[in-house]
């Protein structure tokens, strides 16, 4: 099978770990319980990239030990892979710029960039929310994605397409939003700040897609629905026939990065099993 992806990949949030989720809080007097679920869209994306041809890959995450585990797993499966793990807090401008500069210095370019790092934040309604929680979630989910995208755009503007063909670009950027970047969260979920940041990612993606289409840089967003994790699998039978598997999201991102989607600009591709059409 011919390789879909022949260039250099860059993926943030690529360490398998846990995401802390806070059930909706309807009153300031309510307790603040939290639930954790394993996540791994970034790792699944890295795996899909490599499975479809990438042999030069930089992966970033704030959790360096878990990130190195991802790198080791990939190298074990694909010995010819050159993978660079980068400790990265995407809310830090200096660290983001350094990670992109280090990747370009090491590999010479970035062809496929995926901005996946994010946090759930607290699932509170506005009246019960605090500014500190708002700012933290915005810093990671929106500002962090923008910082990464900005640095990637600056790098891609300095390079030529891999091939002289309309199907190839100077670079492709995929920002990971959420189905809650398209719709509002249900009352029982709450999460006003999470919803606001994911809508922001979709809007930023569309604005940048317009701004840089003429520069031959493709920018799109993906809006995943609920993904199969230990926490959610037990609820799947009640709400949906099934939940998405991690590799289904990763493969969707690979499609968006590849020449197969070469005419896709500024899209917010929803991959949610039909949740948002109900």
From TrEMBL:
CDD domains, per this entry?
Answer: SDR_c
User: Which GO molecular function annotations are given, in alphabetical order?
Assistant: oxidoreductase activity, acting on the CH-OH group of donors, NAD or NADP as acceptor
**Which family is this sequence assigned to?**
Belongs to the short-chain dehydrogenases/reductases (SDR) family.
UniProt-recorded name of the protein: 3-oxoacyl-[acyl-carrier-protein] FabG
| Upper taxonomic lineage | Eukaryota, Fungi, Dikarya, Ascomycota, Pezizomycotina
The record ties this protein, via Pfam families, to: adh_short_C2
Which InterPro entries does this chain map to? NAD(P)-bd_dom_sf, SDR_fam
- Protein's organism: Cyphellophora attinorum
